[in-house]
Specification:
Rossmann fold, single chain, Glutamine Phosphoribosylpyrophosphate, subunit 1, domain 1, binds guanosine-5'-monophosphate, 17 helices, elongated, binds magnesium ion, binds iron/sulfur cluster, 2 domains, about 450 residues
Length: about 450
């Protein structure tokens, strides 16, 4: 998911709208914006893309100088309007709104306890437990109530909480999901998942919110506290591999630079003789540039992507080969025909797309197809806010690399190692559980 919030600007809701637009890649299922004019919080939410949900008319209703927003990408709970955020409720401290990126691992357990004590839940999202905890914890000031509640959570959260006059941003102690602070050109502050949101609205980057840090922004400025027990940071390496935009700065690094390094390392770890190296667009493009640079194999755009592919399309009645992938990707025969082709993608999840791509390239005349992946085999599900399928659907959990190569029908298949990943980001302190199975929290043995 993506979150963004603005404090201290008359156009708060408009600026949040633009921020959500630039964070659209973090969630396309639904979005919402909540705003306060200091007397009450109002909000608009909807299903689908930000630009489709918010008309000028809807934005005009969102008057006030503090606003937070959310792009939803469901990792827990079904895709439904009730699960879109911000969650806005009235509790003993008045109205609050909350927008959450991440996933609470012990949400079900907490929810069971709350329901047994009479709580009523209006959604199936894991984030709703947070507002319930805040409402019920019995503290007499809001900040204590929030910190006390968040201490009970296991898992990942980069959170924005808005009251009638304050905006609070907080990252879990491991800092699994990103959150950055910016200063607006005229007045006020912005908190957002990625720096691309700041770029669009011409805010200047101040710094990242640190793992375990809570910032409280009000009319007096910013106050920072560290309410959690200190622990080793475990930011999500998959943000750098796939999820974040390459033009963002994340966990102290530029995503583009990191991705390019992944590609260079991949070329060193899995060399092959070939005539051309091509990306699977868009997610494989930057790593492919690195691969080309390190291997000396010329870079070409051998697959073109249609950027207008919507949610659903009408399937033809007569069968067309690779239809599902063809609507999105089409080979450039001039680049492929008669060549030994290296094709680079960021990850293999189920293997079905890769298999179709390999076949498509052969049909376009490729003499050899060598698949290269700028991350290790994804063999374990994520419990921290990235939507991976269940263990048994992950091809790497049931297939060796050689078996996967056979399945996708490539001439060779090579992955970047975990050591390679860590070397590229210059730190061991990253979560890589979806590749290694080394989960940084205890978690239910869910399939
Ligand atoms: P596969 O070959 O496993 O069917 O598909 C691999 C493709 O899925 C890669 O191009 C990769 O970019 C993409 N992918 C990896 N993780 C995600 C994700 O969380 N969401 C979406 N939409 N695509 C993903
Ligand atoms: Fe990121 Fe993978 Fe860890 Fe999930 S399991 S937080 S996707 S590195
Ligand atoms: Mg992709």
């Amino acid at each position: 998911c993506g979150v963004a919030g603005v404090h201290g600007n008359r156009e708060a809701a408009n600026l949040v709208y633009l921020s959500l637009y630039s964070l659209q890649h973090r969630g396309q299922e639904g979005a919402g914006i909540a705003v306060t004019d200091r007397s009450k919080i109002v909000y608009e939410k909807g299903m689908g893309l930000v630009a489709d949900i918010f008309s000028q008319e809807k934005l005009d209703k969102l008057q006030g100088d503090i606003a937070i927003g959310h792009n939803r990408y469901s990792t827990t709970g079904v895709s439904a309007l009730a699960n879109t955020q911000p969650i806005t409720v009235t509790i003993n401290f008045g109205q609050i709104s909350l927008a959450h990126n991440g996933n609470i691992v012990n949400a079900d357990e907490i929810k069971e306890g709350l329901v047994a004590r009479g709580a009523i839940f209006g959604s199936t999202s894991d984030s709703e437990v947070i507002v319930h905890l805040i409402a019920k914890c019995g503290k007499d000031n809001l900040i204590d109530a929030i910190t006390d509640s968040l201490r009970r959570l296991k898992g990942a959260f980069s959170l924005l909480i808005m009251t009638k006059d304050r905006m609070i941003g907080v990252r879990d102690a491991m800092g699994m999901r990103p959150l950055v602070l910016g200063k607006l050109k005229n007045n006020g502050y912005i908190l957002a998942s990625e720096t691309v949101a700041l770029d669009l609205i011409e805010a200047s980057f101040v710094r990242e919110i640190e793992p375990g840090e809570m910032v409280i922004i009000d009319d007096d400025g910013i106050k920072s506290i560290f309410p959690f027990e200190k622990t080793t940071p475990k930011p999500c390496i998959f943000e750098h591999i796939y999820f974040a935009r390459p033009d963002s700065y994340l966990f102290g690094r530029n995503v583009y630079e990191v991705r390019k390094k992944f590609g260079r390392w991949l070329a060193k770890e899995t060399p092959v003789e070939a005539d051309v190296v091509i990306p699977v667009p868009d997610s494989g493009v930057v790593a492919t540039l690195g691969y080309a640079e390190a291997s000396g194999i010329p870079f070409e755009m051998g697959l073109m992507r249609n950027h207008y592919v919507g949610r659903t399309f009408i399937e033809p009645s007569q069968s067309i080969r690779h239809f599902g992938v063809k609507i999105k990707l089409n080979p450039v025969r001039e680049v492929i025909d008669g060549k030994r082709v290296v094709v680079v993608d960021d990850s293999i999840v189920r293997g079905t797309t890769s298999r179709k791509i390999v076949k498509m390239l052969r049909e376009a005349g490729a003499k050899e197809v060598h698949m290269r992946i700028s991350s290790p085999p994804t063999a374990f599900p994520c419990f921290y806010g990235i939507d991976t399928p269940t263990r048994k659907e992950l091809i790497a959990s049931t297939h060796t690399v050689e078996e996967t190569r056979k399945y996708i029908t490539a001439d060779s298949l090579g992955y970047l190692s975990i050591e390679g990943l860590m070397d590229c980001v210059g730190s061991e302190n990253y979560c890589h559980a979806c590749f290694s199975g080394e989960y940084p929290t205890m978690h239910k043995n869910s399939e």
